[in-house]
Amino acid sequence: MPAYVLVQISVHDAQTYERYKQLAPPAIARYGGRYLVRGGATQTLEGTWEPPRFVLLEFPSVEQARAWWASPEYAAAKALRHASAHSEMLLVEGLPAGLLDAGVPPKTS
């Protein structure tokens, strides 16, 4: 089942954050992850949420996403992100492929 990592980022040191942006992609890819959104323009449709920067990653599973986040390959990049930005990060479990492909909503209890 796919998993998604959603990140709201407020950069306070652009130069250091640029180094992070160079280091993070190889570690993400090594764990089967890929960018779906990487800092594109956002538009608030409801509420007051206005993230300064937004990133959405997809991984094959929750386990792969957790392994990436805790990995030695991502450690240096993570340290740069912590030093250069304030982040809010969520891990969300996606729908099973069969339900996603069919467009059928999951059954609720």
Concise structural overview:
This protein has 109 residues and is of the alpha+beta class.
Kindly describe this structure:
With 109 residues, the chain is an alpha+beta fold. The chain is built from four helices and four strands, in the order βαββααβα. It has helices at 14-30, 62-69, 72-84, 97-102; strands spanning 3-11, 34-38, 53-59, 85-93. Strands 2-3-1-4 form a four-stranded antiparallel beta sheet. Helix 1 packs antiparallel against helix 3 (72-84). The longest helix has 17 residues, at 14-30. The model has no long low-confidence stretch (mean pLDDT 92).
What is the share of helical residues?
40-55%
Give helix and strand order, one letter per element, not per position.
Answer: EHEEHHEH
Biggest sheet, spatial arrangement of strands? 2-3-1-4
Secondary structure class reads alpha+beta
Largest sheet: 4 strands, antiparallel
Shape: flat
Q: Which band does the percent of strand residues land in?
A: 25-35%
CA gyration radius, whole angstroms: 15 Å
Number of helices: 4
* Spatial gap, N to C terminus: 20 Å
Q: Which residue ranges are poorly predicted, with pLDDT under 50 across at least 5 consecutive positions?
A: none
Mean pLDDT: 92
How many β-strand stretches? Answer: 4
